[in-house]
């Protein structure tokens, strides 16, 4: 297979409980994650040698060339296999950076899946997930996607029932958030977890979208709101526009509203004034070959 095209899906957190700081410096969490239809497009093509990345739009924030997750995924799989994997990667960004939507993790997941396919590496999904954990805590989930409970630092995954049908209006203010800085601020605040995971899991098992909406929560949201006040404004605007509930994803700064019908979601999209906004829905996978 000389080339492959993939969609790398964003994720939201229906629930995020922060349970404490581990000895290795990472935080112990429990979280319910959901893949959504917002996605980046990733194309991989066998090359004569080395690694080459091109992307659009030009202003997309990917970080330094040898630190972005696409390059890290390629380097990791080369080291694991011990063979050269010469490739050209084209990335079309749709997921905003610094949003808590897992864009970088999704891209790394797509590159791991794509390289595994075009070079016939032969790794199983569980092996790809284990490898991806060395790049970032969300990469294992982004490989398999769907609806899942994440434990540990988010890499220990248990599949959950698919979410009941609904629309998600995802909005992001201009300002972004740095995940490490948000967690440090959370530690300084010494707040207690709101423990929203179990109510969300129960709601998913019930298949009731209103129960799901009433259960969503995120322990990091109060901290990020203090630093980026627009988050509060966005949450309130989405609820005023008809959302059953609104919450922040990950460490922010993206906010999502849960809507039980398309028309109301479109009304919210048209009235909420923010640099990034769109209507999406839950999807059953993290990476899809197209």
From TrEMBL:
A Gene Ontology molecular function term of the record: ATP binding
One GO term (biological process): terpenoid biosynthetic process
Domain GHMP kinase C-terminal, first and last residues per copy: 201-270
Associated pathway: Isoprenoid biosynthesis; isopentenyl diphosphate biosynthesis via DXP pathway; isopentenyl diphosphate from 1-deoxy-D-xylulose 5-phosphate: step 3/6
Positions with a binding annotation for ATP: 96-106
Keywords on record: ATP-binding, Isoprene biosynthesis, Kinase, Nucleotide-binding, Transferase
Sequence ranges assigned to domain GHMP kinase N-terminal in this UniProt record: 68-146
EC number(s) reported in the record: 2.7.1.148
InterPro entries membership: GHMP_kinase_C_dom, GHMP_kinase_C_sf, GHMP_kinase_N_dom, IspE, Ribosomal_Su5_D2-typ_SF, Ribsml_uS5_D2-typ_fold_subgr
The reaction(s) this protein catalyses: 4-CDP-2-C-methyl-D-erythritol + ATP = 4-CDP-2-C-methyl-D-erythritol 2-phosphate + ADP + H(+)
Active site: 11, 138
Pfam families with a match to the protein in the record: GHMP_kinases_C, GHMP_kinases_N
Gene3D superfamilies xref list: 3.30.230.10, GHMP kinase, C-terminal domain
Enzyme class: transferase
Purpose: Catalyzes the phosphorylation of the position 2 hydroxy group of 4-diphosphocytidyl-2C-methyl-D-erythritol.
Xref: HAMAP family: IspE
Family statement drawn from the similarity comment of this UniProt entry: Belongs to the GHMP kinase family. IspE subfamily.
Listed name of the protein: 4-diphosphocytidyl-2-C-methyl-D-erythritol kinase
Species assigned in the record: uncultured Rubrobacteraceae bacterium
């Amino acid at each position: 297979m000389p080339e492959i095209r993939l969609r790398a899906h964003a994720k939201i957190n229906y629930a995020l409980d922060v349970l404490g700081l581990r000895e290795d410096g990472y935080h112990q969490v429990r979280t319910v994650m959901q893949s959504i239809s917002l996605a980046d497009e990733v194309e991989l093509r066998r090359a004569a040698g080395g690694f080459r990345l091109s992307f659009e739009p030009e202003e997309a924030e990917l970080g330094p060339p040898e630190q972005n997750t696409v390059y890290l995924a390629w380097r990791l799989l080369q080291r694991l296999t011990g063979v050269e994997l010469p490739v050209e990667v084209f990335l079309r960004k749709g997921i905003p950076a610094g949003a808590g939507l897992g864009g970088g993790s999704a891209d790394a997941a797509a590159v791991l899946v794509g390289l595994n396919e075009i070079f016939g590496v032969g790794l199983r999904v569980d092996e790809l997930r284990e490898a991806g954990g060395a790049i970032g805590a969300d990469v294992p989930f982004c490989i398999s996607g769907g609806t899942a409970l994440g434990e540990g630092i988010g890499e220990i995954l248990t599949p959950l029932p698919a979410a009941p049908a609904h629309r998600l209006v995802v909005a992001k203010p201009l300002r972004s958030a740095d995940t490490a800085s948000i967690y440090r601020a959370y530690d300084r605040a010494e707040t207690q977890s709101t423990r929203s995971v179990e109510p969300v899991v129960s709601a998913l098992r019930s298949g009731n979208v209103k129960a799901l909406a009433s259960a969503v929560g995120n322990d990091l949201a109060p901290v990020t709101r203090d630093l980026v006040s627009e988050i509060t404004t966005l949450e309130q605007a989405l609820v005023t526009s008809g959302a059953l509930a609104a919450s922040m994803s990950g460490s922010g700064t993206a906010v999502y509203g849960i809507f039980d019908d398309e028309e109301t979601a479109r009304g919210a999209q048209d009235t909420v004034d923010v640099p990034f906004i769109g209507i999406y829905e839950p999807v059953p996978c993290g990476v899809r070959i197209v």
